[in-house]
Design a protein that fits this description.
By secondary structure, the protein is of the alpha+beta class. Helix content is 18%, strand content 39%. The strands form 3 sheets. A 5-stranded mixed β-sheet has the order 7-4-9-8-11. Strands 1-2-3 form a 3-stranded antiparallel β-sheet, with no helix packed on it. Strand 2 and strand 3 form a beta hairpin. The model has no long low-confidence stretch (mean pLDDT 94). Residues 44-178 form the Nudix hydrolase domain. Its EC number is 3.6.1.13.
Length: 208
């Protein structure tokens, strides 16, 4: 038995979009179940995201602390952002986010993990990159606003982040998946065996 997610699409009898927001929307599909019943399934339609676990030479990760209104908490996160342009190359988007949020560039990029954040209620797909060989970016710092104007920036040892995840002190999904994927990769075939930065991503097809 091969343990691998596979594409599949059940019949949809009808669809509506009762809400359209600035970046996302809510869709209601009438889906035919295996027994023939038709049920409504509501979900958020999302453009997709990228996130970056950026490691420096001291094995510290670049992390940000940002207010997240839906959960009423300030969360420690790794740099991340939306795929604002349909078909956008996720590597280019990740490089942009690392520059804008941390004013950092990286020489070596790999794919750590591809995840659906909440597949029971949202179609958001996130590609989490590993970035190494960090250096200060050139040019002016990106102008921040709203929640980002209150954002804190730090570099935290990976071991400390792992302890925080397992203790239940850190909750951001990209940070959790990224940090634990990093540890798993190190204990397995090594970081150089990770997928290349431009590996195919069926969930969000892109142009090289």
């Amino acid at each position: 038995m091969t343990i691998k997610d596979t594409p599949e699409e059940w019949e949809i009898r009808g669809t509506q979009t009762p809400f359209v927001g600035k970046k996302t929307s809510v869709r209601t599909d009438e889906v035919v179940m295996p027994g023939g019943a038709v049920v409504n399934r509501d979900y958020q339609v999302h453009p997709g995201s990228v996130a970056v676990l950026a490691l420096d030479d001291a094995d510290r990760a670049v992390v940000l602390r940002q207010y997240r209104h839906p959960v009423r908490q300030k969360l420690w996160e790794i740099p991340a952002g939306l795929l604002d342009v349909p078909g956008e190359n996720p590597l280019h988007a990740a490089q942009r986010e690392l520059y804008e949020e941390a004013h950092v560039k990286a020489e070596d990029w790999r794919v750590l993990a591809d995840v659906y954040t909440t597949p029971g209620g949202c179609d958001e797909a996130v590609r989490i990159f590993l970035a190494r060989g960090l250096s200060e970016a050139e040019g002016d710092r990106f102008a921040v606003e709203d929640e980002e104007a209150d954002m804190e920036l730090a570099r935290v040892p990976v071991d400390e982040l792992v302890r925080g995840v397992l203790a239940g002190d850190l909750h951001n999904n990209c940070l959790v998946v990224g940090v634990l994927s990093l540890v798993a990769a190190r204990s397995g075939d090594g970081l150089d065996a990770l997928r290349p930065a431009e590996a195919p991503w069926p969930a969000r097809p892109f142009e090289a």
